[in-house]
Amino acid sequence: MPAPHGSGSVDGEKASSSSVQSLSPVAKRLLRLYHGGSFVFLGLLWLLVGIPSLWALRVDLGRLFSYFTWTGLRYALFYRPGWPTLGLLLCVSFTMGILIAQSRYELFGLYPIERIMLEQQSRWILSFPVRHPLRRWLVRTLSPQDPQNSAAKD
């Protein structure tokens, strides 16, 4: 049975590239900024919250590496609650959420409402004053002198 039109069938390259092809260059650049920013956020979250949480749980984790049981894991994380458990839960949940969102984007492309929102946000950013850093970043990368754009044309 064929998938209904617009349901986002897994056509891989076709679904993802067609939704991005219909975006303006500024909206494409903004989408790249969102995707890169989400991974930068994850990296900072793991550095500032995840690693200290793992360090605080190092005794329990060492015990789990030696003798893993589900009861030991439950004891380490839930029966001794505290900031390390909450920090680790925060890091893992944000990581899973961002990875699922990125996978959905890669498999199915952008939803039409997401395309509209990206175009609206890019127009709103372009209405900022010329000296605004976000506007300068978006416009600077679209200039013809940009080596990235000239390499893509070759």
Polypeptide structure, described:
The protein has 154 residues and is mainly alpha-helical. It has one domain. The chain contains eight helices and no strands. α2 (25-56) runs antiparallel to α5 (83-108) and α2 (25-56) crosses α6 (112-126). Residues 1-15 and 146-154 have low confidence and may be disordered.
Which SSEs are present, and which pair or pack?
Elements (H helix, E strand, L loop, with lengths): L12 H9 L3 H32 L1 H9 L3 H10 L3 H26 L3 H15 L6 H8 L6 H7 L1
Strand content: under 5%
Helix content: over 70%
Roughly how many Å is the radius of gyration? 22 Å
On the 0 to 100 scale, the average pLDDT is: 80
Largest sheet: none
Number of strands: 0
Main features:
8 helices, mainly alpha, about 150 residues
Quick description:
This protein is mainly alpha-helical and 154 residues long. The chain has helices at 13-21, 25-56, 58-66, 70-79, 83-108, 112-126, 133-140, 147-153. Helix 2 packs antiparallel against helix 5 (83-108) and helix 2 (25-56) packs across helix 6.
